Amino acid sequence: TIEATAGTGNGAPPQVLALDRLGETAYIFLTNKLPAENEYHSVRSAHSTDAHTLLVLKAATILEAEGYEIVSKGEINIPMSDSRISSPDILARKNGREIHVEVERDVNKGDSEARARKWQNAFDAGQGWLYVFCETEEVQKKLIQEINRALASESRLQRANTCMTNLEVIKAGKRHTDGSIWISQKHPGNLK
Q1: Using one digit for the tens of pLDDT, what is the confidence trace for 102-134?
Q2: Is residue 121 within 8 Å of 86, Cβ to Cβ?
């Protein structure tokens, strides 16, 4: 079955391929194995739109190629203090360190207070570290302002370690001076 999904705004809408019942039966008959679950369908309910889901899957694939182990693609809610919950788009591990990655396609998405809480929760859940994977460089630049405003309270901004990247720079093969895909990095006392 081929399903059309909402596009990312760049070109024709992407399509998701999935086996229907007959296809699953044929696969089992030919291979004596159960088919793998369709990755798109398994994580779709954790994300706001089809396009966001597809960007999360792209980001996860890139992170895996960079040596990260993907723990979750949005299916996990992490309980925090004060009855808050953090739901990172991607939870990944590398070299024994866990990172919470937010994947963003757009900036001006509704309630600014809710957006500020999102970044504050991400900061707190990530223990002062924010990892953000953007669709475009333009979105990344706008998000820097949004994140800075959100973290201005309770001196979070001064303590924030922010690592950002976007699909455009990755496709162009650009890297940070440390060799990572996190092209824009800000650490306390260090404004790279």
Answers
A1: 999 876 667 888 888 889 989 999 999 999 999
A2: yes
Least confident of 38-42, 55-59, 93-97, 131-135: 38-42
Contact by Cβ (8 Å): 91, 69 = no
CA 181 to CA 166: how far, in whole Å? 9
Number of neighbours of residue 149 by Cβ within 10 angstroms: 14
Of 114, 85, 87, give the one whose Cα is nearest residue 101: 87
Rounded Cα distance, 188 and 33, in Å: 51
CB within 8 Å of 22: residues ≥ 6 apart = none
Which residues are within 8 A (CB) of 17 and not within 5 positions of it... i.e. 6 or more apart?
1, 2
> CB neighbours of 53 closer than 8 A, spacing ≥ 6?
5, 40, 43, 44, 46, 47
C-alpha angle 149-177-179 in degrees, rounded to nearest 5:
105
Beta-carbon count within 10 A of 154 CB: 11
DSSP category for residue 135: S
If DSSP codes are grouped into helix, strand and coil, which group holds residue 181? coil
Radius of gyration of the chain (CA): 18
0.85 exceeded by the pTM?
no
Angle subtended at Cα 41 by Cα 35 and Cα 47, rounded to the nearest 5 degrees:
155
